[in-house]
Structure formats: structure tokens, C-alpha cells
Design brief:
The chain has 12 helices and 10 strands. By secondary structure, the chain is of the alpha/beta class. It folds into 2 domains: 220 residues, TIM Barrel (Alpha-Beta Barrel); 32 residues. It has an 8-stranded parallel beta barrel, surrounded by 8 helices. A two-stranded antiparallel sheet has the order 1-2. Helix 5 packs across helix 6. The longest helix is centred in the last third of the chain and has 19 residues.
């Protein structure tokens, strides 16, 4: 691993310096993470996606299609040089760490995602000390978010769509986390998870999420708007008119 934990001068609180933490320093705005089949994601990785995020539901589908889980993860690594988030699970802290190390040894691109449990707290702390970025998933309350962040998770993932299905505000926890972490030094990312509609994506971004996790069809839908279609057609018509008038000489234009 080339990701290294930098210990602050007081000897406390390792600071993870993985690929996403480095990207934050560039100030590029909210991150859009994609989930799905590696074959479906391949063309989207060159269109601005922050990286790939898996969960065990998706991974179970992928191993049925492609075989062993390490081979599936390698398929993701083969289609991008961006971060690949691998969700792992286990019954104890030691098991979570042992499983995590299988994947962190594969590539420096790997980020580990772990569900929110009591034994995950020790795993987050140990992985932070090793300089490994981590996502904490299945976060449904502010106290959970505080606990896992304090333990060392570098990304806190409020779940959105399940709350919406129960009649709640899907991004209320996003807003609460953004407020709570605002004064923290080296605060974790607040990344909205289980975002399955453009409306929820909009709400999460409006409410200050550092990023959202979506399947690629939602990414495509996010780019659609009737006014965008109208104005794109207007501008294209003008472009074609300039071409037809012979006024784009030297410009490589393909008409039609």
C-alpha cells in the first residue's frame, strides 16, 4: 500500500491520505459514484465519475455472472484508474480486517466499505491507522454517524431511499451530518447512499452532500431536462447553419 497514515504532531488521530482525500484538496465539488456491472460502467468512467462503489447485493449478482469475488473486483480495477470501493462483511473486527486486507493488497485504488456495527468501529480505527480509506454504510441516525466518524471512517453514508419508502425525508440525515461535521478537523465525507432517483440525487446535493452513490442509469437521467433538449437543438441548428454556409473552414465538423 502506498496510502500512508500521517500522524499529527500530538501523536493522535491518523489522517488518511488516500485517493479521495487527495481529490478533496483539489476542490472539485460533489463526487458522483457509480454502481453496477463493470461492463455497463466502463463507458461512464471516462465521463467524470468519481469512482465505483459496490455493495454485497451487487457483488452477489456479479459473482454469479463472473465467478470469484476477487476476479469481479479485478474487473472493476481493469476498467478505471479511479477508486474502487469494495464492500466487505464479517462477524468480528478481526474478520473484517482480514477480509479487507485481501482487497487492499490488490491495488492502492481500493477503498473498503463496511456496514455500521459495533465490531466495525475497531476495523475503521485500524484501517485508518494503516492509511486505508473507508466507507461506513447502513447509517440511519446521527448518533451512528458520530460514532463511526469518531472511530476513523473517512466516508459516512446516510441511506436515503429506504427512509423515503417509509414516508420520511430521504435527505434529513444528510443535512444533519453536514451540520454536525462542519466544525470537525479532517471531517469525514458525507456521501448519500441508496440514491435511486433524480429527485433524491437533487435533494442530497442541495442539502450539502459531498457525494452521491447512484446506478449508471440515474447518472444518465440526471443529465436530461426538457429545456436542455430545446436549447441544445437550437445551438446545434446554428452550428449546422454555419457549416452549411461554409464558415467553419478548418474546423473538423461532421454533418448529420
Amino acid at each position: 500500500m502506498t496510502n500512508e497514515a500521517i500522524i499529527k504532531a500530538d501523536g493522535l488521530d491518523p489522517v488518511v491520505t488516500g485517493p479521495v482525500m487527495q481529490a478533496r484538496r483539489l476542490g472539485r465539488g460533489p463526487a458522483i459514484w457509480l454502481a453496477g456491472d463493470p461492463e455497463d460502467l466502463k463507458p461512464w468512467m471516462e465521463r467524470g465519475a468519481a469512482g465505483i462503489v459496490t455493495n454485497t447485493v451487487v457483488l452477489n449478482d456479479m459473482v454469479k455472472k463472473y465467478g470469484q469475488i476477487t476476479g469481479v473486483v479485478q474487473r472493476y480495477l481493469d476498467i478505471t484508474d479511479k477508486p474502487v470501493v469494495v464492500e466487505v462483511d464479517g462477524h468480528t473486527t478481526d474478520e473484517l480486517l482480514a477480509v479487507s486486507h485481501v482487497f487492499t493488497r490488490m491495488s492502492d485504488q481500493i477503498i473498503i466499505k463496511i456496514p455500521c456495527t459495533a465490531h466495525a468501529l475497531g476495523a475503521f480505527r485500524r484501517l485508518a491507522e494503516e492509511g486505508v480509506e473507508t466507507f461506513c454504510t447502513t447509517v440511519f441516525s446521527l448518533p451512528q454517524a458520530a460514532a463511526v466518524a469518531q472511530a476513523g471512517a473517512t466516508h459516512v453514508l446516510p441511506f436515503c431511499e429506504p427512509v423515503k419508502q417509509m414516508g420520511g425525508d430521504p435527505t434529513k440525515l444528510v443535512r444533519e451530518c453536514v451540520r454536525m461535521f462542519a466544525g470537525w478537523q479532517n471531517r469525514p465525507y458525507v456521501t448519500a447512499a441508496l440514491v435511486r432517483s433524480v429527485d433524491t440525487a437533487y435533494a442530497a446535493l442541495r442539502d450539502g452532500a459531498d457525494g452521491i452513490i447512484i446506478f449508471w442509469p440515474i447518472f444518465q437521467e440526471m443529465l436530461e431536462h426538457p429545456l436542455t433538449d430545446t436549447w441544445n437543438e437550437t445551438f446545434m441548428d446554428e452550428w449546422v447553419a454555419m457549416h452549411d454556409a461554409g464558415l467553419l473552414e478548418g474546423v473538423p465538423v461532421r454533418h448529420g
